[in-house]
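Fold it.
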Amino acid sequence: MRADSTIWHDTSQQHHQRFRPREFWLADLGYVGCIGLITKYKRRRKNPVTGRLPRASQYYNNVHEHVRNRVENVVGQVKAHKIFKQTFTRKFETLEAALAVVGHVTALQLRRYRRFRGYGPWSHRHG
């Protein structure tokens, strides 16, 4: 079994053709050190003071995880929706309608079942 970062490095030519200028992708800790990917800060095993990350790093990790989970949740909702389990007839209207339904249902679900505390001074934050 190969590590995620090794696979990324071995297939880097294929990935970098898809990147737009100054574009980066979010990734989990299995991809630490990979070019073009943004990961969370790793916790140091032997921090002499507290064993924790500095406050700014922890805040960054919380925001990173929040955004990644929102994206993965929407992708999961789209993949699991029954409209994608049947044959797609290549009608743009069908695709547009399906994505609108899935997007709205996902937004409703995220509002009803918050997974993370809201951050920042914005008026739309939950918490």
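The chain has a mean pLDDT of 77.
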